[in-house]
Design a protein that fits this description.
The complex is a heterodimer of chains A (249) and B (247).
Chain A: E1 7-11, H1 16-27, E2 31-36, H2 40-49, E3 54-57, H3 63-77, E4 82-85, H4 109-133, E5 140-145, H5 158-178, E6 183-190, H6 203-212, H7 221-234, E7 242-245
Parallel strand pairs in A: 1-2, 1-4, 2-3, 4-5, 5-6, 6-7
Chain B: E1 10-13, H1 19-30, E2 34-39, H2 43-52, E3 59-63, H3 69-83, E4 88-91, H4 106-134, E5 137-142, H5 155-175, E6 180-187, H6 200-209, H7 218-228, E7 240-243
Parallel strand pairs in B: 1-2, 1-4, 2-3, 4-5, 5-6, 6-7
Helix pairs in contact in B: 1-2, 1-7, 3-4, 4-5
The chains are: A alpha/beta (249), B alpha/beta (247).
Chain lengths: 249, 247
Amino acid sequence: MDAAAPVTIVIGGSGAVGRVVCRTLAARGARVGFTYLTNETVARELTAAIPDSTARRLDVRDIGAIDRTLDEFEALFGRIDALVNCAAIGVACGPPGATGHERMDHVTEDGWETMLAVNTKASYFAVRRVASLMRDRGGVNVVLLGSIDGVKPAPAPVHYAASKAALAGMIRAMAKELGPRGFRINSVAPGVLEDGLSRTLSEPLRREYLKHCGLKRFGRIEEVASLVTWLAVENTLVTGQTLVLDGAL
Amino acid sequence: MTARLLDGEVALVTGGSRGLGQAIARVFAGEGARVAFSYTRDEAGSHKTLELCGGAGRARAFQASVLDPGATASMVAEIERDWGSIDILVNNAAVSQNMPLALMEEDDWDRVMDVNVKGTFLTARAVLRGMIRRRRGVVLNMGSLAGVRMIDAPVHYCASKAAIKGLTEALAKEVARYGIRVICLAPGLLEDGVGRNLPEHRLADYLKHCALGRVGTFDEVARLAAFLVSGGNGYMSGETVIADGGV
């Protein structure tokens, strides 16, 4: 393995988007460490398919575990050149695996906190740890997965939209604070995709989306992975930006 | 080695004899595209661009002002005849002029708005006809930080670049039905770019507010441009991508 190859860490690497991001990063020549929560089978397939890759189980609600996991990756690879966070949930109040559009009336305080913990708080602490591990080395790219629901008006679950919109403010301020040390922090905000969390969208909302989407199709996971990979591996100038991928919605 | 981003594509870049346009032509050619570019006066610069693109087989230069619809039409026809299509259009040609509004003559305003906005309209119109026929294409409009953020820059230049953002959004909606994407790329200050005549204190102020603490290079904006127009970025349209090092 090329020692000069960029080391990229993907949180939530076994999900529908995360697994394609891992493969795309590897195809671009990066070394890949990733985390998974429940999808051990996918994690094992990925480590088998990607040479020199490593998987760690991580529940991003556990900040101590985020720190320990990133420390382990840094010790293993010797550095972290890019951090990508794909871990996210769309539903926070039902049992694990529940789907559907949680309306305001149904969101409990616990549900709100879980949504923000997974989709927002975890990113803050993960970036902070990488910033500390790579303190004086600079040249680090961070890419957080946002959502069109956090950028444009859409009939989205309110707690989900809030958790994703928070990322836009967070990365702008992070770009300012960490920029002088050579960190570039960006977010990719996709519209409705063919797979992943978008699958759970109701049929009327999917039709509504296609009606307003200029390209009249859902986004492909590969198209998200392609931009994420460019920002993680190639980018040198873009920072503090939320890049929208929505086919001209 | 990774596959090149623009293998098999034909690109037209306006204002390709120097600066950012020259870098875009060079990077696109390096990524496998055949590159045609226009220029108005700078013969030496256009030769340099041809050379950077790998010579006449890979690149072609056309002396054509973006404000001359006749010259633009024959340029487009010639490229389509010889190379089969124009898959990528980069509306890059632009001018600026440091001048306070109170001293601005009507001619000053017209020149900046004409080259930057009307030139983009005329070139896009000429190229889109073929793209619509082929149901395929990408238009990349060069915007500017000056068109999306409140900064201390010439009023006509800011207005022209803000217009480019609006034009991008409306055109993206209009031509999406043909599978054509339209993107605006808005850089901050670049080495030797339109900000080169900036007074020293204004540059220092910019660098103070830029998180990365430096101006951008033509090369890094050109590499971003190559990714934005590549097939892998097929779901981005109507978007304005700011590349400013965090101002």
